[in-house]
Amino acid sequence: MDALVHEEKAVLSITSDDVEQARAFKAEVEQARGNVATGKHESITVGLHGGRSVEMPPELTSLVSQVLDLLGRGCTVTVGSIPNEVTTTIAAKMLSISRPTLMKLINRGEISAHKVGSHTRLFSKDVIAYRDKQRDAQREAFQQLRELEDQLGLDD
Asked: What residues pair up with 9 in beta bridges, in sequence order?
């Protein structure tokens, strides 16, 4: 795994060997886990030279587990941080909608926003919650469509 670092951004290049190692590690974890459902109480312990070890915080354990799972599937993974507060332009990009559409949602009270001087700002957590709510509604609508197709006997 090679890292290209420039200012505050870094790109990690992974090899097919890295992907295979992620798959093998995931399989080993699943085998060790057995039939027990995955839980928030799982942890990752890092062994250090000299016999010491450090336990990773649960939030990082979840992040690392997700990254390893995605790498094992051969996915491209982008990890970044999101500021607590975003502009309407950034929020619109996060939602994959236009800024005017976002402003309509704000004006209708569908997503909360506040003013900083004359500028409209949104909390990232509100934007992400709205996006998740929309995705859940889309999944539900898709499921209902599939059920309707089954009832009508429609096949591909």
From this structure: 6
pLDDT tens digits, 122-139: 999 999 999 999 999 999
For the chain, the average pLDDT equals: 86
Per-residue pLDDT of 94-121, as tens digits, reads: 999 999 999 999 999 999 999 999 999 9
Provide the Cα torsion 101, 105, 111, 116; round to 10°: 70
For the cut 80, the answer to whether the pLDDT of residue 37 exceeds it is no
Spatial separation of the C-alpha atoms in residues 83 and 91, rounded to whole Å: 11
